[in-house]
Design brief:
- The protein contains 17 helices and 20 strands.
- The chain has helices at 22-33, 74-84, 91-110, 143-157, 223-231, 250-253, 265-268, 282-285, 295-307, 326-332, 334-342, 397-416, 424-443, 450-464, 471-487, 499-523, 569-576; strands spanning 9-12, 15-18, 41-44, 61-62, 125-126, 136-137, 162-163, 166-174, 177-185, 191-195, 198-201, 235-236, 241-248, 272-274, 317-320, 352-361, 364-365, 378-380, 545-551, 557-563.
- Helix content is 36%, strand content 16%.
- The chain is an alpha/beta fold and 587 residues long.
- Among the domains are: 244-358, Succinate dehydrogenase/fumarate reductase flavoprotein, catalytic domain (Flavocytochrome C3, Chain A, domain 1); 438-563, Fumarate reductase/succinate dehydrogenase flavoprotein-like, C-terminal domain (Methane Monooxygenase Hydroxylase, Chain G, domain 1, Up-down Bundle), CATH 1.20.58.
- The radius of gyration is 23 Å and the shape is globular.
- Bound molecules: flavin-adenine dinucleotide (FAD).
- Residues 18-24, 44-47, 52-54, 56-61, 143-144, 166-168, 202-204, 214-215, 219, 223, 261, 359-360, 382-384, 395-399, 402 line the site of flavin-adenine dinucleotide.
Length: 587
């Protein structure tokens, strides 16, 4: 490898926010509202401004406003979240999110977010799966877009600087504290070293690493967890991957649409599932909660119907909302209606075909109650962090987490910022080592195409850590991962503005995250929430623990487990009250 000096740009700021989705934007807004000078903050994203995965969120954002069901309150929201999460969520974080959300939704309303309204003008709320009351606030079925538009506008009003199209490939830490980050400008190919006292990872999730997934293809590649792991922080719950029951079926709508989400709002607004024999099969799996039972329950039910030969000829089941008026469907589900109309399907007249798709990684970076990792000055928020969702996530809770933890982390960082500061010389020495690796990567002319290896990795995760898992499959998956890893040492990569360069970096993140998912899934010898082991099909009370995955002193990943804490008294009381949605009252 060359020892020539590598050119790079240095950018100084006190707080670097890596990620410009809802979580990153909300963090930056809070920092400035708590007195941090906007010039001391920089938000970066690997896409253009306002374009983050958040824009794809559809059905809604949770908060116990009680506009339609006044009996609802934050403790019941917390209880529903813990029940859905198989009681391995961090109860403190669940409480933080659920307690803060009503106020934060009102704030978004004041900021002009385009919420759908009740007849008397309040924020409307709809049912989402496994929630006892209507608490999902929404903007039609484009909630993420409306949310991010609002936050970007607020960030711009505060003059918060933003830099687009930069990919961070390494965090630099020394002596247990973060010093900054190293990135590449994807427009110019220039290297950039960010000198920062605090780094916030708001870089999204990891389900884009699955063969069939609902994410944008070049997003959710596990960058956040992989960067944090490499910097010395712990990951948790990586084995818990949510398979959304209703992804579009490629054989019916074309490969480009395979796995794309049909929002849960279709079921929330009354959509019913049928098999090819015309049976409303959820009656057999969940006679009370029916289509609105937890996502893992509905996803496994659909998978079983298909496996047992009662699926459609295209490999799905039917989702039907045609019993609702056309006007209602167009108002409540405008994007879905239009999408299917473009594909020649009239949702007001006929069902659509769906099957499960990888949708959300519940695992992520371990943080404390303020969103800080145990690497000093390194924070993680939004989908990158672990703890809120446990073994399974309630629909509408991840947008809630982005907003709530953005606010929490922003507040904590602003309070501690005056005492922070790092060593720039160490930052630059370490950065140069990584930059030489990046230089070598972009010059690599081996035999393997990064994109093809990424596809193989996606196939591996889908096959070995999909809806059903077992020890043999997981062990075989780990072996296959090792072979992929050695092939990834022989890449052919284009220049630093090429797609192949970005794919090569994504592959590095993905190999790390895949290892954490496979090992976590193998370690957890029980079934809970979204993690279903056919060789251990029951919940094991001994496993009310979180699996942590962390680099040891010689750079090898190590797994440990930690017990879960008890919920607070008010939340325990809500759990004891056993609230539950009775689906049939909706019909
Ligand atoms: C189809 C779909 C529908 C959904 N619908 C809902 C819903 O209705 N309700 C709900 O609550 N949740 C929903 N979710 C989940 C929700 O959208 C996400 O969890 C949430 O938007 C994540 O926001 P975030 O800010 O944490 O990350 P993201 O919005 O994913 O933003 C990540 C940011 O990090 C940047 N980034 C990533 N890696 C790097 C890197 N290496 N260097 C620099 N920048 C980087 C990206 O460019 C981006 O700016 C849905 C998810 C999908 C896939």
């Amino acid at each position: 490898m060359s020892t020539e000096p590598v050119d790079y740009e240095t950018v100084d700021e006190r707080v670097l926010v890596v990620g410009a989705g809802a979580a990153g934007a909300r963090t930056a807004i809070e920092l400035v509202d708590r007195g941090v000078d906007p010039e001391d903050v920089l938000v970066i994203g690997k896409r253009s401004h306002g374009d983050a995965h958040t824009t794809w969120a559809r059905g809604g954002i949770n908060g116990a406003l009680g506009t339609l069901d006044p009996e609802d309150d934050w403790t019941i929201h917390a209880a529903d979240t813990l029940n859905e999460g198989g009681h391995i969520n961090d109860p403190g974080k669940v409480e933080t999110v659920t307690r803060r959300m009503p106020g934060l939704l009102r704030e978004l309303d004041e900021w002009g977010m385009d919420f759908s309204r009740t007849d008397d003008g309040d924020i409307a709320q709809r049912y989402f799966g496994a929630q006892s009351f209507r608490r999902t606030a929404f903007a039609g079925d484009y909630t993420g877009e409306a949310l991010l538009d609002t936050l970007v506008e607020q960030a711009q009003a505060r003059s918060i600087p933003y830099r687009e199209n930069v990919i961070v490939s390494r965090l630099v830490a020394d002596g247990g504290r973060v010093l900054g980050a190293v990135g590449t400008d994807l427009d110019t190919g220039e290297f950039v070293v960010f000198d920062a006292d605090v780094v916030v990872l708001a870089a999204g999730g990891y389900t884009g690493l699955y063969g069939r997934h609902s994410s944008r293809d070049d997003e959710n590649t596990g960058d956040g967890p992989a960067l944090a792991y490499q910097a010395g922080a712990a990951l948790a719950d990586m084995e818990f991957v949510q398979f959304h029951p209703t992804g579009m079926v490629g054989d019916r709508y074309g490969d480009d649409w395979d796995g794309r989400l049909v929002t849960e709002a279709v079921r929330g607004e009354g959509g019913r599932l049928f098999n090819s024999e015309g049976e409303r099969f959820m009656e057999h799996y969940s006679p009370d909660q029916m289509e609105l039972d937890a996502r893992d329950v509905v996803a496994r039910a659909i998978a079983q119907e298909i496996d047992e030969g009662r699926g459609t000829e295209n490999g799905g089941v039917y989702l039907d909302i045609s019993h609702r008026d056309r006007g209602f469907i167009r108002e409540r589900l405008p994007r879905m209606y239009e999408r299917f109309a473009d594909l020649g399907v009239d949702m007001a007249e006929e069902p659509v075909e769906v099957s499960p798709t990888a949708h959300y990684g519940m695992g992520g970076v371990v943080v404390d109650d303020d969103g800080e990792t145990d690497v000093d000055g390194l924070y993680a928020v939004g989908e990158t962090m672990a703890g809120v969702h446990g073994a399974n996530r309630l629909g509408g809770n991840s947008l809630a987490e982005t907003i709530a933890y953005g606010a929490v982390a922003g507040e904590a960082i602003a309070e501690r910022l005056p005492d922070r500061g790092g060593d720039s010389d160490v930052l630059h020495d370490r950065s140069r080592v990584h930059l030489r690796d990046l230089q070598a990567l972009s010059d690599a002319d081996g035999d393997e195409a990064p994109e093809a290896l990424l596809d193989e990795l996606r196939a591996l995760l889908w096959e070995r850590t999909g809806i059903l898992r077992d020890d043999d499959g997981l062990a075989a998956g780990l072996e296959r991962l090792e072979r992929l890893r050695s092939r990834a040492a022989d890449l052919a990569v284009g220049d630093r503005t090429s797609r192949s360069y970005e794919f090569a970096l994504d592959l590095g993140f993905g190999l790390r995250v895949a290892d954490a998912v496979l090992r976590g899934a193998r370690e957890r010898t029980e079934s809970r929430g979204a993690h279903y082991r056919t060789d251990h099909p029951d919940v094991d009370p001994e496993w009310q623990r979180n699996v942590h995955y962390r680099r040891d002193s010689v750079g090898t990943p190590r797994l440990t487990t930690t017990p879960v804490e008890e919920p607070s008294e008010p939340v325990q009381a809500a759990l004891d009250a056993e609230h539950e949605l009775d689906y049939h009252q909706l019909e």
